[in-house]
Each structure stands twice: as structure tokens, then as C-alpha cells.
TrEMBL record:
The gene is pht4. It comes from Lacipirellula limnantheis. The lineage of its organism: Bacteria, Pseudomonadati, Planctomycetota, Planctomycetia, Pirellulales. Residues 47-164 form the Gfo/Idh/MocA-like oxidoreductase N-terminal domain. This is 4,5-dihydroxyphthalate dehydrogenase. The keyword Iron does not apply. Residues 204-404 form the Gfo/Idh/MocA-like oxidoreductase bacterial type C-terminal domain. It holds the Pfam family GFO_IDH_MocA. Keywords: Oxidoreductase. PROSITE patterns: TAT.
Length: 405
């Protein structure tokens, strides 16, 4: 469970809120033109609607096979803007707003949700959504700790949910490289290099007056208590300070944020996306610190290898191997269409949660090696560092009540 059972009072308040939601029906409910009838549309809601969440909302709103009915965000102004965006699209006033994501998840009429909150919320929200029978499109990086990944995979499988990670770049940015590797022109693949960073940092920003627009306690959620500061919770895309993406309590910095893209593209290109490394070698050379991730099949993934550009592949010059078909999106409309198609068919999406977890696990393993300044052994099946008590302390972190996993 991702949080304790609500009190009876809280349950009644939530039930009352859900009961007050109007029955969703629009002028197009029976279908017209290219719009399918309401009974054939996926009913969706969004959790975390600032920045990337707004982009996700726009993508799903633009699909005729989706009916978008609810948004949840801890900022009143963001909720209002997201509601207006949906209402203007449908030319009605039906989109409901929630400060507490649990009230949105309690609605029986919602089939699927997208999640674009800060990273420290992802695991809790995805698991809760699965428990409530919702399919989930979750923005990257999907996890904040190594322990969260298997719990998210287990929830998806246990409740038979479609859960997709949100990195569109894995296929769209690196398609040419993937095609060359899978097409066999580089011969037997030996290694690939990824240049990405920085690691997240401690946040010691001073306290500022909390604006009335934000529920600060809810924004923090499972993270350690800290005073409000606008830069602490900014959703801008910087990873080197001045945004939640920069700070340890909420994100893994560029190592996970851009790492989800670059490691995702790299592991896809060299075909280890279904695996996790078994060893992480730490190098402290005069030219700089860097890592080598070793996979059980012999593939090497280098991180920040000196004098090596990003996504450089070492193959077998002069040799070719038979081409194999490259996995791609299902349905139409990119990664969003892939998710909606799989919600309908119950297939696994292109960025199935297990593949997404394997990608971000590389980022977490690398971060731990850099923090400890040494090499590590990793057991993917047992999900721990064998015989390494010091490293195993980094598998997870404490969470504030009642937000436990």
C-alpha cells in the first residue's frame, strides 16, 4: 500500500466529493464525424498539470478517442488553468478539479490517468492508481529509488494494469542509432557511452512566505519537511539548481532526468533494455571520474567516459550480423497513442513500466557508485548489492507519514 487507510471522516468527505461529480456527457456523446461515441472513448484524468503535465494533458485532449474529465494539482491556479483548457476544448464546464489526487482516483468513471508530478511522488501515485483500477502513463524518471521500481512493476502486474513510462525520446531521438544497431551494420555490439549529469544536490534555500495558491504540505508529501521556497518547487527543466529536478529530496538531477532519455536510448540501441547491470565499475582517472556498467551478456555501458561523445557505439568493424525487427509504438499518435492503444487492447506499451524501471535503475546504480566512490556488484533478481551493507542502505529512503510504500 502506498499510504495508510484514510480515516472514516476522510473517506466520507472523499465519497461525498465523488458523488457530487456530474455524469459526464457532451454534445458528442453519441459520436459524430471522426469522434467515437462516449462508450468507446477512454475516460482520463491528470495528476500534476504544471509544465510537462500540461503538455501531456494537451496531447490526450487532442485525441478523439479520449474523454478528459478531471485534473489534480496542489496549485489552485494550475488546476484552474487545466480545467479551462479541457472545458474550452469540449465547450462545456465538466472537467472537475482536485487538490488531493486520491479523490480523483476514487472516481469509478475514470479509466486511466497521466502522472507528471515531481519524481518523489511517482511510485506512490502509480501504485495507488493501479490499486484503484486505473491504467497509468507516468512521466520519466519513473522512480526516485531502486526499491520503488519492483513495487511499481508488481502493482501493474497484480492489478492487470497498463503502465507506460513517458520518455518519447527513447524511440524518437535515437531512432537512427537504434536502426543501425538492430540492422546489423555495426556487427556485434560491444559497448555504448552515455554522457549525462549532474547528480542532484542538497537544497538549503531559505524560507519564503508560502503563497495561498499552493498546498505546501501536499507538495512535499513523502519528502522530508522543508520550508517553502519558490525555487525549491519550480517545475522548470534545469537540473543544476533552482528547480525541484535539481534536489536530492525530489529528484536524481540530470543523472535521472536526462538519464531516462539517454540511458533509455542507449539500452534500447544495444538491446539490453530488458536487463539490469550486474556490476558497476568506478574509475577515478586523471581525466575524470566515470563508470562502466557490465551486463551479464557482456555488453558494456560507459558513463561519461573521457574523450568519448554521447551515444558512441563500439561494434565490430567490417562485420555485419542479421537484422532484426525494431520494436516500435503501437497504434497512432506517438507514445501517447501507443499508451491509449494498449489501454484498449491490454497489450504492453512500448515503454512498459518494467523497461522504464530497468532504464532508471542504471541512473540510480550509477549515482550510488559515485556517492560511495567505489565499484559495486548488483543482483538484478534479488534487487540488492550482495554482501554490501553500506550500498544496500541506498536502496530506499525514509518517507513522511502517512506516505509509506
Amino acid at each position: 500500500m502506498s499510504c495508510r487507510q484514510p480515516t472514516r471522516r476522510k473517506f466520507l468527505q472523499t465519497a461525498a466529493a465523488v458523488a457530487s461529480v456530474p455524469y459526464v456527457i457532451t454534445s458528442k456523446a453519441l459520436g459524430q464525424g471522426d469522434v467515437p461515441p462516449a462508450s468507446d472513448r477512454i475516460v482520463m484524468g491528470g495528476i500534476g498539470i504544471g509544465n510537462m503535465g500540461a503538455s501531456d494533458q494537451g496531447a490526450f485532449l487532442g485525441r478523439p478517442d479520449v474523454q478528459y474529465v478531471a485534473v489534480s494539482d496542489v496549485r489552485e491556479s494550475v488546476r484552474k488553468t487545466a480545467k479551462e483548457r479541457a472545458d474550452q476544448h469540449y465547450k462545456n464546464g465538466d472537467c472537475q478539479t482536485y487538490n488531493d489526487f486520491r479523490e480523483l482516483l476514487a472516481r469509478d468513471d475514470i479509466d486511466a490517468v497521466h502522472v507528471a508530478t515531481p519524481d518523489h511522488w511517482h511510485a506512490i501515485m502509480v501504485i495507488e492508481a493501479c490499486r484503484h483500477g486505473k491504467d497509468v502513463y507516468c512521466q520519466k524518471p519513473e522512480t526516485l529509488t531502486l526499491r520503488e521500481g519492483p513495487l511499481m512493476i508488481d502493482a501493474a502486474r497484480r492489478y492487470a494494469r497498463v503502465v507506460s513510462g513517458g520518455s518519447q525520446r527513447v524511440l524518437e531521438d535515437y531512432k537512427e542509432l537504434v536502426g543501425r544497431c538492430w540492422g546489423g551494420e555495426l556487427g556485434e555490439i560491444k559497448s555504448i557511452n552515455v554522457n549525462v549529469g549532474p547528480l542532484s544536490q542538497l537544497c538549503n534555500l531559505p524560507a519564503e512566505t508560502t503563497p495561498p495558491d499552493i498546498d505546501w504540505e501536499m507538495w512535499l508529501g513523502p519528502a522530508a519537511w522543508a520550508p517553502y521556497n519558490a525555487a525549491r518547487c519550480s517545475g522548470n527543466f534545469a537540473t543544476d539548481g533552482g528547480s525541484w529536478r535539481s534536489y536530492v529530496d525530489y529528484s536524481g538531477g540530470g543523472m535521472t532526468d536526462w538519464g531516462a532519455h539517454h540511458f533509455g536510448g542507449a539500452t534500447f540501441a544495444v538491446d539490453v533494455r530488458e536487463l539490469q547491470p550486474v556490476e558497476i565499475e568506478f574509475h577515478n582517472d586523471p581525466e575524470g571520474k566515470h563508470l562502466t556498467f557490465k551486463y551479464a551478456n557482456g555488453i558494456l555501458l560507459h558513463h561519461n567516459r573521457p574523450k568519448t561523445e554521447n551515444l558512441v557505439v563500439e561494434g565490430t568493424p567490417g562485420e555485419k550480423r542479421p537484422a532484426k525487427p525494431v520494436p516500435t509504438y503501437k497504434g497512432e499518435g506517438g507514445i501517447y497513442g501507443d499508451f491509449i492503444h494498449c489501454v484498449k487492447t491490454r497489450e504492453k506499451p512500448f515503454r512498459d513500466i518494467e523497461l522504464a524501471v530497468n532504464t532508471v535503475a542504471v541512473s540510480h546504480l550509477g549515482t550510488i557508485a559515485y556517492q560511495l566512490q567505489r565499484s559495486l556488484k548488483w543482483d538484478p533478481a534479488a534487487q540488492h548489492f550482495p554482501g554490501d551493507e553500506e550500498a544496500n542502505r541506498f536502496l530506499d529512503r525514509a518517507r513522511r507519514e502517512p506516505w509509506q510504500l
